[in-house]
Amino acid sequence: MKLNIAYPTTGCQKVFEIDDDKKLRIFYEKRMAQEVEADALGDEWKGYVLRITGGNDKQGFPMKQGVLTNGRVRLLLSKGHSCYRSRRDGERKRKSVRGCIVDANLSALALIIVKKGEQEIPGLTDTTVPRRLGPKRASKIRKLFNLTKNDDVRKYVIRRKLPEKEGKFTSMTCSNCIFVKFISGDLILNILRFHAQFWMM
């Protein structure tokens, strides 16, 4: 079974291939969102606590939270349900999903580290992956940089330089940034007043 383990603190994730059923037995008969002590996986996992977040069986069907079985069922799913993306308004479809209880028929199990143990795990807890984009909402940017409501949020938007394409000459460096939502009420009013001048003509 493949164990896809993520560590949200560093932003890293790594896949471990474990074939020994004795080591995997700690996950059997456990539900999604339950926490499991990972001491049985090996000495390097001593003290670690993992939470089960999902998984797939050998045919690729995903686990669904709330389905209290370890087998496969066919459910009528609509918009808003997990394991289904509706193509039209009001569309419903009967889909095969796996229950939320872990058993030996799974091919991959998704886990996150809730509590870190004594030792570092290479590629998972020893390295940090920086976030690609900063927060989008203006209030979250203010909270991140300790700004007041009067400060201009647009100066603090995190920009990311894009790599130059081969064979394309550009005079300016390209960068990518997010569109800030809800900048401030005064700025929106100024924009509306500016556009209102043209509407009145």
Q: What would you say this structure looks like, in words?
A:
Strand 1 (2-7) and strand 2 (12-17) form a beta hairpin. The longest helix has 16 residues, at 185-200. The protein has 201 residues and is α+β, with helices and mostly antiparallel strands. It starts with a strand and ends with a helix. The strands form 3 sheets. It has a 5-stranded mixed sheet, with no helix packed on it. It has a two-stranded antiparallel ribbon with strand order 5-6. A two-stranded antiparallel ribbon has the order 8-9. It is extended. It is built from 3 helices and 9 strands. It has helices at 21-24, 138-145, 185-200; strands at residues 2-7, 12-17, 35-37, 49-57, 72-77, 93-98, 106-115, 160-161, 175-176. The chain has 2 domains: 2-115, no CATH class; 138-200, Up-down Bundle (Single alpha-helices involved in coiled-coils or other helix-helix interfaces), CATH 1.20.5.2650. Pfam families: Ribosomal_S6e. This is Small ribosomal subunit protein eS6. It comes from Loa loa.
